[in-house]
Design a protein that fits this description.
Elements lengths: L1 H13 E11 L5 E4 L8 E5 L4 E8 L4 E5 L5 E5 L3 E2 L4 H32 L5 H97 L1
Antiparallel strand pairs: 1-4, 1-7, 2-3, 4-5, 5-6
């Protein structure tokens, strides 16, 4: 019993949990996925070359790892019969497939480019349509430029008229002030003239009676 427990303890120590990683079955081999950690156990599934396996646990003592296939099947597989990269044959097949796909895509793009070039060849309907659209846009741009020029000219004329109006208003105000000053001066002159005439009338009112009295006395003396 003790011997059995010791062996079990040694197995537990030897088994180490590792981070899940993907490995591949080596070249030119088709090996079985086992139900237990030995080559005599039941075969769960036959794994062809290049089959990807996800490692769940590794037991370095037994040389087996508990793995899972892409379809979810789990079992034990010899660590020595795995590699970290896909087999070179599979890599070549994959590269060949990619090259074929790229060549097909390149041919398709060349055909599309030829179609586009043919469509825009001078004289075709597409070329004519593009030319008409270009001419239309050119005319619209010319109209916009003309309208902008007219707007600028109208603004300049409006500013000039506003300036003239301001100048006329200033001259009108100046004329009003001058007229008011002349009116005040005329009123003052008439006031002076009226006062002068009144003064002359008063003086004549005093002088004329005296002259008349002197003349009367002189006639009486004769």
């Amino acid at each position: 019993m003790k011997k059995l427990l010791s062996s079990f303890f040694i197995c537990l120590v030897a088994v180490s949990n590792v981070q899940a990683k993907t490995v591949y079955v080596t070249d030119n081999l088709s090996l079985s996925l086992r139900s237990e950690e030995n080559n005599q156990s039941k075969s769960v599934k036959l794994l062809p070359t290049g089959t990807p396996l996800t490692i769940l646990e590794e037991n370095k003592a037994s040389g087996f790892a508990r793995v899972r296939t892409n379809d979810g099947t789990e079992g034990y597989f010899p660590i020595r019969n795995t590699i970290d990269q896909p087999p070179s044959r599979l890599q070549l097949e994959s590269a060949t497939k990619n090259l074929t796909a790229l060549q097909s895509e390149n041919a398709t793009l060349k055909a599309e480019l030829a179609t586009v070039k043919e469509a825009i060849t001078p004289g075709t309907s597409l070329e004519q349509s593009l030319a008409n659209e270009r001419d239309q846009l050119t005319r619209e741009l010319a109209d916009i430029k003309k309208a902008s020029a007219n707007a600028i000219q109208i603004k300049e004329q409006r500013d000039e008229l506003q300036e003239r109006v301001v100048n006329v208003e200033r001259e009108l105000e100046q004329l009003k002030l001058e007229n008011k000053a002349l009116q005040d001066s005329t009123n003052q002159d008439w006031f002076i003239y009226g006062g002068t005439l009144a003064l002359v009338g008063v003086l004549l009112g005093f002088i004329l009676p005296k002259l008349s009295w002197r003349r009367k006395n002189s006639w009486d003396s004769y």
